């Protein structure tokens, strides 16, 4: 069964049947106990009334002298019976209603003892009997033991019980059907957003829309937003690959033309050809680095930032060991950000390497969290400072371009900040250049949360 709605309806049906089954049994037991108790009380009242009316006649027989207060005892086949039996088993008196009816009763009752028994008459009628032992004292006579008995047919009771059970089961069946119908209707309404998401995903697959839209319930809002983020990441990655291929083809045109000219006009200038080959290698490496940038996406594990910064600082301290640079790392251990570790190393490594090239004696790498309203997780702020000469404010935007270098005496190809800018843009962040607390350049990178 693949349908969640069908599974839920079946599960609720089973639960309702089980719960209502227990409830039906409990109500049935309660009804039977209450009905039997009320019948025993009626029979006991008839026995007490019979005791109050009974008198000993001249022959020593105990019987009520006149008509009985209960009309059913005077009516043949009424279903209510009474009798007075002596201790020796001889019947002293029977109510007129017992005519044609006979039943056996355990009459071994001491005076004051009570007994309620289920009996069966000779014709198969089920009875409930109540008996009370009495020590009767006549005038000037020795007390004699008698048993006063009242019995009632249970056939009307069983008919009423069966009717009650039928009505109870029918009532619960109707309630179950109504509840299940209400559940089905509620599920159709509650699952409408899921069907809407399914419909929009089908439109995305068919190219009819680019992402999910609309207002979603809180439980589905995270699913919709993450799916939209995944779609955006895939579109951005595809666009990056296309741009990379286009840029690679465009960038290689010039060095290939130069090489073709050098080869076609011997003797070949080995130095010029080598420069063009180095340039081509540089272009290919740059584009490959851009293509390797993972960018934001769903399922990227959160990377601890502090260990990455310490690894970068340790590696650069060895590279610039001859300059004895002090490379400080200020990053709390709990800071984590969902970014590919290679991207994080590329980002921090390029910034730190650029700072080390320009620093006089000190470089500081720091990381912290930042947030904006509506984010479910914080973003990452990465800051790299040095005590070098810095960059004039008017030149800061220009140095972010590919291959731009302000001082040709410092080794490098002028690609570091450009690659950082492209990587930050791929993650939807922003890059700012300014003056840091160490007096030199401060590069501030802010990657967004979600």
Overview of this protein structure:
This protein has 450 residues and is α+β, with helices and mostly antiparallel strands. It has three domains: 4-59 and 71-160, Beta-Lactamase (2-Layer Sandwich), CATH 3.30.450; 218-292; 302-447, 2-Layer Sandwich (Heat Shock Protein 90), CATH 3.30.565. It has eight helices and 14 strands. The strands form four sheets. The chain has a five-stranded antiparallel sheet. A hairpin with a 4-residue loop joins β3 and β4. The radius of gyration is 50 Å and the shape is rod-shaped.
Q: Terminal Cα separation, in Å?
A: 36 Å
Q: What's the number of domains?
A: 3
Instruction: Report the portion of residues in β strands.
Output: 15-25%
Estimate the mean pLDDT confidence.
81
Question: Would you identify the CATH architecture of the largest domain?
Answer: 2-Layer Sandwich
pLDDT < 50 runs, ≥5 residues: 402-415
| Elements, N to C (H/E) | HEEEEEEEHHHHEHEEHEEHEE
**Continuous helix count:** 8
In the CATH hierarchy, what is the class of the largest domain?
Alpha Beta
The description of the largest β-sheet is: 5 strands, antiparallel
Features:
alpha+beta; five-stranded mixed beta sheet; Heat Shock Protein 90; 450 residues; five-stranded antiparallel beta sheet; 3 domains; 8 helices; Beta-Lactamase; rod-shaped
């Amino acid at each position: 069964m693949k349908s969640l709605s069908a599974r839920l309806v079946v599960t609720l049906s089973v639960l309702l049947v089980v719960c209502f089954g227990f409830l039906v049994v409990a109500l049935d037991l309660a009804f039977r106990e209450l009905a039997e108790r009320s019948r025993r009380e009626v029979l006991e009242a008839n026995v007490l009334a019979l005791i109050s009316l009974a008198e000993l006649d001249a022959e020593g027989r105990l019987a009520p002298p006149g008509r009985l207060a209960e009309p059913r005892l005077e009516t043949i086949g009424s279903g209510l019976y009474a009798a007075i039996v002596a201790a020796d088993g001889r019947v002293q008196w029977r109510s007129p209603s017992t005519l044609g009816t006979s039943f056996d009763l355990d009459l071994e009752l001491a005076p004051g003892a009570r007994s309620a028994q289920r009996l069966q008459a000779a014709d198969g009628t089920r009875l409930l009997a109540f008996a009370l032992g009495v020590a009767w004292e006549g005038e000037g006579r020795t007390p004699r033991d008698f048993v006063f008995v009242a019995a009632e047919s249970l056939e009307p009771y069983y008919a009423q019980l069966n009717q009650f059970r039928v009505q109870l089961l029918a009532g619960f069946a109707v309630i179950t059907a109504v509840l299940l119908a209400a559940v089905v209707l509620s599920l159709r309404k509650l699952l409408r957003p899921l069907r809407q998401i399914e419909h929009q995903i089908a439109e995305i697959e068919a190219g009819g829309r680019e992402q999910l839209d609309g207002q979603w319930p809180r439980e589905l809002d995270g699913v919709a937003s993450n799916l939209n983020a995944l779609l955006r990441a895939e579109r951005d990655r595809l666009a990056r690959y296309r741009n990379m291929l286009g840029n690679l083809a465009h960038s290689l045109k010039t060095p290939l033309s130069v090489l073709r000219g050098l080869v076609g006009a011997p003797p070949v200038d080995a130095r010029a050809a080598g420069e063009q080959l180095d340039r081509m290698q540089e272009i290919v490496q740059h584009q490959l680095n851009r293509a390797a940038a993972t960018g934001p996406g769903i399922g990227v594990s959160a990377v601890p930032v502090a260990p990455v910064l310490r690894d970068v600082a340790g590696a650069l301290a060895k590279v610039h060991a001859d300059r004895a640079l002090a490379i400080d790392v200020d990053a709390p251990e709990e800071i984590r950000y969902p970014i590919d570790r290679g991207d994080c190393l590329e980002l921090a490594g390029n910034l730190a390497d650029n700072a080390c090239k320009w620093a006089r004696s000190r470089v500081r790498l720091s990381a912290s969290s930042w947030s904006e309203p509506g984010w479910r997780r914080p973003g990452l702020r990465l800051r790299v400072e040095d005590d070098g000469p810095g960059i004039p404010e008017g030149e800061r935007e220009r140095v972010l371009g590919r291959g731009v270098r302000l001082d040709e005496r410092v080794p490098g190809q002028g690609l570091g900040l450009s690659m950082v800018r492209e990587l930050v843009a791929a993650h939807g962040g922003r890059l700012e250049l300014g003056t840091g607390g160490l007096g030199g350049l401060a590069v501030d990178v802010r990657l967004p949360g979600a």
